[in-house]
Amino acid sequence: MNDEINDAVAWLKSLHKIDIPVLKQTARELAKLKQDEENLSARAISSVVLKDPFMVFKVLTYTNSHAGKNQVQDILEVEQAIIMLGTSSFFANLSPNLLIDDRLKSNASALTHLLKLIKRAHRAAYYAADWAALRKDLHSEEIWIAALLSDFAEMLMWCFAPEKMQIISDRQQQDKSLRTKEVQQQILGFHISDLQKELIKLYAMPPLLTELMNDDDKTNQHNRVQNVLLAVNLARHSAKGWDDAALPDDFEAIAAFLHVDVARVLYIIKHPDAQLLN
Questions:
Q1: Which of 37, 88, 91, 155 is deepest in the core (most CB within 10 A)?
Q2: What is the DSSP letter of 203?
Q3: How far is CA 230 from each of CA 92, 174, 222, 224, rounded to the nearest angstrom?
Q4: What is the pTM of this model?
């Protein structure tokens, strides 16, 4: 293990002593549901949890680290996790105590960056789950979660090291030629991609999610891995509009994956030019 990964591991280990915060909207919606806990379904809770990558991470890591003796498989879906916990146990052990909005209330720029990153993750999750359904994948929630958490290490950094992340962002804005990994190494002492890998190991994320979120092997032809990678790429490249130079290649790759033409892809992803092709 090199020094970069050692630094990433050390940083992550410090998080073991910290309660992971969640979005204010998540806390508000869960509090409202708790008022009618006796008539509450696991599906109602999971619909709230799945909007917030921080809450998804908390639920899955807590459930899999508190597995019962009879549990032989990792919990890969939020609703499944909540059913196993029970609503009373869920609220007793996973009710939000800290809010991201409060943690970053004195750093509006960092909060804005983080919220944009979460919005991009939502788009990736939506695309991935939609394509999974088109391919008749019976476990599309697993695909949703993998896409939603694909940049979770970067989200954590904006939450817990906002000043350093701001420096990285500012430097890249000033010099477009700067390689992301190089500036991350200079400021953080490690690459965020390495942090993501160690995050998965340290928090014992389910093996399937590990596979889905591993983009090291660009030739990996596993359909579910391809689904997540294509969705994450599309969300990233379209985050600032539909004029990114990488998007035509994304459209071609998605068309091949879904076995349709590019015009159909534009319709499926609700591209603004799709109406012009009708």
A1: 155
A2: T
A3: 38, 29, 12, 10
A4: 0.89
